[in-house]
Write a structure and sequence with these properties.
With 246 residues, the chain is α/β, with parallel strands linked by helices. The protein has ten helices and eight strands. It is globular and about 45 Å long. Bound molecules: phosphoenolpyruvate (PEP).
């Protein structure tokens, strides 16, 4: 199955108006028709991007509610109005630091799809879970929480495998290990919708940089990357994007 690439930047609580301008001009040189570029900056920066650009914008999270008295929250509609067409859901930092449960992640993903945003669902295991050989069990639980009761959402989703031990540590999963888990994810998803499982984009995230991305991108079931730290450096992020072959 021929799938196109998606390379997404997660700026987390970093960036500035200056980085918006610098990144926009560096990415303007990338012309790969098989590659969708995506930047997920802090929500306050979304409106700073010009509408004429060669990449999409996304939020880093959203509320599962439509609107109302939820101080500090951001709805799908607000993100869209600010220019977002994607949104990250269930990032491990939100699952851990904001106590987002599997159920809440499922509700957020459903809300994103209902509003017309493409969700990027993050799944992945801790170091301890890997050592206990529970990686597949944990990921299956995270996937089942979303798709068992709403399998129709798979065709509208992107999924990012982000081993927690690899996020921000400089220790990426090896290409072989990442491929093994991506293959497991794709296989597991066939029970919900076999056609969608074959088509769904599976991103790898966890210390992706200019040196390790090419080997990751050679793996059959890796369709791109979710990049944290290296996405704050325009030249390096452009190098990563240029490693996705046409
Ligand atoms: C992330 O947090 O989504 C991420 C992949 O971060 P990093 O690339 O810095 O490991």
């Amino acid at each position: 199955m021929q799938r196109t690439w998606l390379i997404a930047a997660n700026w987390k609580m970093n960036g500035s108006a200056a980085l918006v301008d610098e990144m926009t001009s560096v990415l303007a040189n990338i012309t790969n028709s098989q590659l969708q570029l995506l930047l997920c900056p802090p929500a306050t920066l979304l409106c700073r991007f010009k509408t004429a650009r060669n990449f999409a914008l996304g939020g880093q999270t959203l509320s599962h509610e439509v609107s109302g008295a939820y101080t500090g929250e951001l709805s799908a509609a607000l993100l869209q109005e600010a220019g977002a067409s994607y949104v990250i859901v269930g990032h491990s930092e939100r699952r851990t630091l904001n106590a987002e449960s599997d159920e809440l992640v499922a509700a957020k993903l459903a809300r994103a799809v209902a509003a017309g945003l493409t969700p990027i669902l993050c799944v992945g295991e801790t170091q301890m879970q890997r050592q206990q050989e529970k990686t597949q069990q944990v990921i299956a639980r995270q996937l089942d929480a979303v798709y068992a009761s709403q399998p129709e959402l798979l065709a509208k989703s992107v999924i990012a495998y982000e081993p927690i031990w690899a996020i921000g540590t400089g220790e990426s999963a090896t290409p072989e290990l990442a491929q093994q888990t991506h293959a497991f994810i794709r296989q597991h998803l066939t029970q919900y919708d076999a056609a969608a499982a074959a088509k769904v984009k599976l991103l790898y995230g966890g210390s992706v940089n200019a040196d390790n991305c090419s080997a990751l991108f050679m793996q059959t079931d890796i369709d791109g990357a979710l990049v944290g730290g290296a996405s704050l450096k325009p030249a390096e992020f452009a190098q990563i994007c240029n490693s996705a072959k046409e």
